[in-house]
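re: ur question from yesterday

yeah so i grabbed the chain u mentioned. its 56 aa long if i counted rite. heres the sequnce exactly as i have it in my notes:
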Amino acid sequence: MSGRTGEVYRVDWLPGTDVLHGTCHCGAEHTAEDPVAMWDWMLAHPRGHDLPGGGS
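ran it thru and got these structure tokens back, copy pasting raw so excuse formatting
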């Protein structure tokens, strides 16, 4: 398949909450309640996530 980059984005829902936990392919982490905000953060790579694990 063409167009594959090998980048993996992961979003997990934290059960019992409205919180999503996202992990970018670079290792940076972020939490948000709004799924659109989560994907905006991930797809804006690398803006907003300087160090792996340095989520907000």
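noticed a couple things. Residues 51-56 have pLDDT under 50 and may be disordered. also The first strand starts at residue 10 and ends at 13.
anyway ttyl
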